[in-house]
Specification:
The structure holds two protein chains of two kinds. Helices cover 0% and strands 54% of the residues of chain A. By secondary structure, chain A is mainly β. In chain A, strands 2, 4, 5, 6, 9, 10 and 11 form a seven-stranded mixed sheet that branches. In chain A, strands 1-3-8-7 form a four-stranded antiparallel sheet, with no helix packed on it. By secondary structure, chain B is mainly beta. Helix content of chain B is 0%, strand content 61%. Classes of the chains: A mainly beta, B mainly beta.
Chain lengths: 114, 114
Amino acid sequence: DAGVIQSPRHEVTEMGQEVTLRCKPISGHNSLFWYRQTMMRGLELLIYFNNNVPIDDSGMPEDRFSAKMPNASFSTLKIQPSEPRDSAVYFCASSLRGARSPLHFGNGTRLTVT
Amino acid sequence: GENVEQHPSTLSVQEGDSAVIKCTYSDSASNYFPWYKQELGKRPQLIIDIRSNVGEKKDQRIAVTLNKTAKHFSLHITETQPEDSAVYFCAASWVQGGSEKLVFGKGTKLTVNP
């Protein structure tokens, strides 16, 4: 199993540009999570999908952030327009059954917005 | 909502000593408590977890204890080795309004000195 695959590994963009982060969960996992990690705020849940349906998006900072999961093997997190305060490492994770089973994290996308 | 407090934020021990990291949670409905290890520049990885129907779980040099009455759980690492140096995160999970939640503590940076 290749694990959770995220792309790109690094993204540097200018303020105001659109950023799209991608994630392929582990096959057979029915839950997918997007987390943001910063030194100040730690690991923050942005959104959580169960069977491709968004269950909890209360952590999405504002309307600039959106996430989709069109099928069981792909999800995107989009930021439009991006701002310097969005700079962070964004992790995607998947699990067999929701938040009460082990999360398998991808290697993350380090986003820098200048 | 749930709040997970983790202490200490940094911990330095000599190789061979034991390390203990403690977490408290606020919601008595929490019933799943995983611990993740994150090495520098890497993704978080599950090292051990415990459910609320169990008081203690051990896996080689690591163990987790849970006190539901006091609402705290701890990670114990014995015979520490330099490769144990990493940031450790605790988390608590519960069900709220049909949605599963998982909240992470802020992390403990463990340094094992040779």
